[in-house]
Amino acid sequence: MPPIPIRPSELKNKDIRSSVYKKQKLEKQKQKAEKRKQRAKEEEKNPELKEKRLKENVPRTIENTREKDDTMVPDDGEVAEDEALDELSSYFSGKTPKICITTSKKCSQNCYDFCADLVSIFPNTTFAKRGQNHEMKDIIKQAIKHDFTDLMIVNEDKKTPNAITLIHLPDGPSAYFKLSSYTPAKKTPGKGVVTAHNPELILNNFNTRLGHTIGRMFQALVPQVPEFEGRQVVTFHNQRDFIFVRRHRYVFRDTEKVGLKELGPRFTLKLRWLQKGTYSRDGEYEWMFRPDMEVNRKRFYL
Q1: Please, are residues 178 and 166 in contact by the beta-carbon 8 Å criterion?
Q2: Is the dihedral of CA 61, 162, 119, 135 positive or negative?
Q3: Residue 64 within any structural domain of the chain
Q4: Cβ burial 1-39 (10 Å sphere, 16+ → b, else e)
Q5: Distances (CA, A) of 210 to 233, 270, 284
Q6: CATH number of the domain residue 170 falls in
Q7: How confident is the model over 121-170, as pLDDT tens digits?
Q8: Is residue 71 part of a domain?
Q9: Residue 181 lies in a domain
Q10: To the nearest 5 percent, what fractions of the chain are helix, strand and coil?
Q11: Per the domain annotation, does 29 fall within a domain?
């Protein structure tokens, strides 16, 4: 009959209890290490065992247990036909993006610095300082008049950039994003040197119908033909409806290994609403965030 293990919680002496607990923990760690070594030897002889183990031991995450969304469009022919005729279709027929970036009224230097980072990310971008008497509708009209394809308006709160309104011109749509976790390019750890080459674009996990629309709006900000010699890439990574924006450069260390050098800036976007056409206070909203949407942690909209 095997000896009954001692339960540290039943020991009254604090020092003995701590000592027994540490010994038991160390013994468990040794047993686990031995099991891992033995398993590694067996899997080295028979790789099928490792494939079987990895296939069976899939961790449960919020992403792989998300609620089914009826608007998921992996390969939908009807959606493709609609997108071929929507407001963004001109970009996909070869039109070169031309972007105007401006700010809210009376913004601070921090907001201007963020706009400078945006100008460095997206090619063919112009920054226009906003005057006191320039209303949103007037800015949109002037941007259309000067053949801009997109308008970005950066808002700030307490001298910190906190939102971006993205308007595709001339017919929309318009989207409003909350901005957080901004790290300027100049403060990015170990940042590389930015060049003027057109970057590649990576979009991750924009799977629903709403996500497709937002992804296409981001696509319309970057020229369709990247300049690969610059090795620059801009990533919009959607995870749990938070959009993480990063910029890197490929670094080829040798003929087999490749690394990434971050160029900055870093920031995170969260969609708050999507409106048909160019922005208007009385416009028709295709989607709008409500606080009760976050009750279920396994429900995502992008």
Answers
A1: no
A2: positive
A3: no
A4: eeeeeeebeeeeeeeebeebeeeeeeeeeeeeeeeeeee
A5: 24, 13, 15
A6: 3.40.50.10480
A7: 999 999 999 888 888 899 999 999 999 999 999 999 999 999 999 999 98
A8: no
A9: yes
A10: 35, 25, 40
A11: no
116 HSE (CA, 13 A, CB side): 11
The sign one gets for the Cα dihedral 18, 21, 27, 28 is: negative
Phi, then psi, of 227 in degrees rounded to 5? -100, 95
pLDDT at 80 over 80: no
Domain count, the chain: 1
| Nearest-angstrom CA–CA distance, 190 and 73 | 39
Which residue range forms the structural domain that includes residue 252?
A: 82-294
Q: Other CB atoms closer than 10 Å to residue 152's CB: what's the count?
A: 22
**Distance of alpha carbon 100 from alpha carbon 149, whole angstroms:** 8
Position 291 scores a pLDDT of 86
Contact 135, 187 (CB under 8 A): no
The pair of structure tokens assigned to 101 is: 């970036």
Tell me if 264 sits within 8 A of 114, measured CB to CB.
no
Q: What pLDDT is recorded for position 190? A: 83
